[in-house]
UniProtKB/TrEMBL annotation:
<feature type="domain" description="PTS EIIC type-1">
    <location>
        <begin position="120"/>
        <end position="471"/>
    </location>
</feature>
<dbReference type="InterPro" id="IPR011055">
    <property type="entry name" value="Dup_hybrid_motif"/>
</dbReference>
<dbReference type="GO" id="GO:0005886">
    <property type="term" value="C:plasma membrane"/>
</dbReference>
<feature type="domain" description="PTS EIIA type-1">
    <location>
        <begin position="532"/>
        <end position="636"/>
    </location>
</feature>
<keyword id="KW-0598">Phosphotransferase system</keyword>
<feature type="transmembrane region" description="Helical">
    <location>
        <begin position="437"/>
        <end position="456"/>
    </location>
</feature>
<dbReference type="InterPro" id="IPR018113">
    <property type="entry name" value="PTrfase_EIIB_Cys"/>
</dbReference>
<dbReference type="Pfam" id="PF02378">
    <property type="entry name" value="PTS_EIIC"/>
</dbReference>
<keyword id="KW-0813">Transport</keyword>
<dbReference type="InterPro" id="IPR003352">
    <property type="entry name" value="PTS_EIIC"/>
</dbReference>
<dbReference type="Pfam" id="PF00367">
    <property type="entry name" value="PTS_EIIB"/>
</dbReference>
<dbReference type="InterPro" id="IPR001996">
    <property type="entry name" value="PTS_IIB_1"/>
</dbReference>
<keyword id="KW-0812">Transmembrane</keyword>
<keyword id="KW-0472">Membrane</keyword>
<dbReference type="InterPro" id="IPR036878">
    <property type="entry name" value="Glu_permease_IIB"/>
</dbReference>
<dbReference type="Pfam" id="PF00358">
    <property type="entry name" value="PTS_EIIA_1"/>
</dbReference>
<dbReference type="GO" id="GO:0008982">
    <property type="term" value="F:protein-N(PI)-phosphohistidine-sugar phosphotransferase activity"/>
</dbReference>
Length: 663
């Protein structure tokens, strides 16, 4: 491969040097921020020698080359363009600066809510379970003691996350806005201080006390902000604004005392006197408007929302919906939005299932069927981006099914007791009305499946060698990564993967097998479930992923280190038998620039199976908002007759993980 020629062609097709803002690379991708996306001929870039995929994500043009190639192309690209190297953080900041205010706001909401979703999900599940148990006990369907410690404690635990939600939101928002998260948590505590009347009691008891503010200019209700979201986020943004400026002007000797005191006091006063009252009104208006749409006669509003839901997922704005769920839970004790989202997700799974059953091509079936199961579990990215959008018509059929299922949910008044989980497991949030939940999901699935079967997918009469079945779109398809940012994946899967090479046979025609051992302790995952479209689509090769339980990485075989990436988040190795493996520790962790990683090997080192080659701080990486799921990819997949995952569930480092067979 001529790296200089490839770099020259990339530079030409993206619009030349004048269209470049910054350039960097990660373990597998060239990451560029360009001035004008319309000038870039993405389809032409994809056809350049060595390019395995092209997409736009988080304001970046990302060009996939793979390990061992991207760094060489990057060096040549810098030389051809005559620009200086940029760090990944430089590229990220440049990309964020180019996004419009709306996209930045949506991304910020995602950064705030994604880390606290596990706590919300846990409480939501437990609330649903306890509500169902209470119903069965009170109506004589179940005879258990409601005074036992397990029952009493479970009832106590069930609403804890929602009771102290402003503190969780404030802490997470503090990290997102760059404020001290502990000072942010104090602002959250102020907003639900016990001396304030609990907001849940206002409906029945009325406002008990008011307080004049700004020297008697007006009075505010002395009511807490239980269940509110927007006022908390705005308050913490103000805290961050004040704190950052005080750090710049307060002398270092006084900074530790003055900055926290002034930041908290000023923000706290502004919050109770102005920010809270104003933005509670705004939030109530938004939640009320959404509820008006969802309760339009005959479920028409929900039909429209259910149809559009998957489209908003593709556009990358769905992370804001957690705000809607929480607001509705505060206002109505149920969220009527989540069942609509669940219907839309199940519908996408049903469309993928129809494609998988109807397709004659083995590759299409092997992708569509597991993707359908994933969508039924609430993870829709493989179904939407790997199957339905690729053929487009199944995506539209699924949107219709989602709309019809959502319409039924609206007509019967179906609500959920929590948020964060959809699909099959979403029923745990609807245990007060499980039958209607099941019926709504079945309607969504049935409509989507039937429409896709009849109109959405057809096998081609003639299928040239190397093509996949069906009628994939020729144009660029929108997609998104795990952060929710818009992405474009160009071309179908067969175009993005290297052409399969002929397998070699020994003189006796025997197959040669090699075992790749697990480099980490943890839980084995299928590649399709990795929350990144590049890894999930196996663009860089087949393999498995591990959700680690320990921050240590071991050599998966005897061999040599090809490359340790400068950010320490990825290591490429080659076994003595020729298997080329990439261990990519975490998703999008290139953005950490090496923080929290320690590597014990260097390029060209020889390693033995089980040797400790890297360590990472799991807690700090998670606190920074990154997934630790680690793909273990066979980069030279095309040289093997098969790449098979031979272990599922829990795995220990050193256990057999993947078997490769070369004839």
């Amino acid at each position: 491969m001529d790296y200089q020629k490839t770099a020259r062609e990339v530079l030409e097709k993206i619009g030349g040097r004048d269209n470049i803002i910054s350039a960097a690379h990660c373990a597998t991708r060239l990451r560029l921020v360009i001035k004008d996306n319309d000038v870039c001929d993405s389809k032409a870039v994809e056809n350049i020698d060595g390019v395995k995929g092209v997409f736009f994500a988080q304001g970046q043009l990302q060009i996939i080359f793979g390990t061992g190639i991207v760094n060489k192309v990057y060096d040549a690209f810098i030389q051809e363009a005559g620009i200086t190297e940029s760090s990944k953080e430089d590229v990220k900041q440049a990309a964020n600066a180019r996004q419009n205010v709306f996209k930045r706001a949506i991304k910020t909401l995602g950064d705030i809510f994604v880390p606290i979703i596990p706590a919300i999900v846990a409480s939501g599940f437990l609330m649903g379970i306890m509500e169902a148990l209470n119903f069965m006990v009170n109506n004589g369907f179940l005879n258990i003691s409601t005074t036992s410690s397990i029952y009493v404690f479970a009832q106590l635990f069930s609403n804890t996350a929602y009771t102290f939600l402003p503190i969780l939101i404030a802490y997470s928002a503090g990290k997102a806005f760059g404020a001290n998260p502990y000072l942010a948590a104090v602002i959250g505590m102020i907003m639900i201080h016990p001396d304030l009347q609990n907001a849940w009691t206002v409906a029945t008891e009325g406002v008990q006390a008011t307080q004049p503010v700004f020297f008697g200019l007006y009075s505010v209700d002395m009511v807490g902000y239980q269940g509110h979201v927007i006022p908390v986020i705005i308050a913490v943004w103000v805290l961050a604004f004040i704190e950052k400026r005080l750090h710049k002007i307060v002398p270092a000797a006084l900074d530790l005392f003055v900055t926290p005191l002034v930041s908290v006091f000023v923000t706290g006063y502004l919050t109770l006197a102005a920010i809270g009252p104003v933005f509670v009104t705004v939030e109530n208006a938004v939640i009320g408007g959404i509820q008006t749409i969802l309760t339009l006669p005959f479920g028409i509003g929900s039909l429209i929302v259910g149809f559009l839901y998957a489209i908003t997922v593709v556009a990358g704005i769905h992370h804001m919906y957690t705000t809607i769920d929480i607001g509705q839970l505060a206002a109505y004790q149920y969220t009527y939005w989540l069942p609509l989202a669940s219907a839309a997700n199940v519908a996408q799974g049903a469309a993928s299932l129809a494609v998988g059953i109807k397709a004659k091509d083995k590759k299409t079936r092997s992708l569509a069927l597991p993707s359908a199961l994933s969508a039924f579990m609430g993870i829709t990215e493989p179904a939407i981006f790997g199957v339905n959008l690729r053929y487009f018509k199944p995506f539209i059929c699924a949107c219709v099914g989602g709309g019809v299922g959502a319409m039924y949910a609206s007509i019967v008044g179906l609500g959920a007791t929590g948020t964060g989980v959809t699909g099959i497991f979403g029923i745990l949030l609807c245990l007060h009305d499980p039958i209607n939940y099941v019926v709504a999901m079945l309607i969504a699935a049935a409509v989507s499946f039937v429409l896709t079967w009849l109109f959405g997918f057809k096998n081609p009469k003639q299928q040239p060698s190397g093509e996949t079945s069906g009628q994939p779109m020729e144009a660029a398809l929108p997609t998104q990564n795990q952060t929710g940012a818009p992405v474009k994946v160009l071309g179908d899967a067969s175009e993005r993967e290297p052409a399969a090479k002929e397998s070699s046979k020994s003189a006796k025609g025997e197959e040669f097998e090699e075992i790749i051992f697990a480099p980490l302790n943890g839980q084995v995952m299928e590649m399709k479930d990795v929350p990144d479209p590049t890894f999930a689509a196996e663009v860089l090769g087949k393999g498995a992923a591990i959700n680690p339980s320990e921050g240590k990485v071991f050599a998966p075989f005897d061999g040599q280190v090809n490359l340790v990436f400068d950010t320490n988040h990825a290591i490429a190795l080659t076994s003595d038998s020729g298997a080329q493996v990439l261990i990519h520790i975490g998703i999008n962790t290139v953005e950490l620039n090496g923080k929290f990683y320690t590597v014990h090997v260097k390029d060209n080192d020889c390693v033995t199976k089980g040797q400790l080659i890297a360590e990472f701080d799991m807690e700090k990486i998670r606190e920074a908002g990154y997934e630790l799921i680690t793909p273990v990819i066979v980069n030279n997949t095309d040289e093997y007759a098969s790449v098979e995952v031979i272990k599922t569930g829990n795995i220990a480092g050193g256990e057999p993980l993947v078997k490769v067979v070369k004839k």
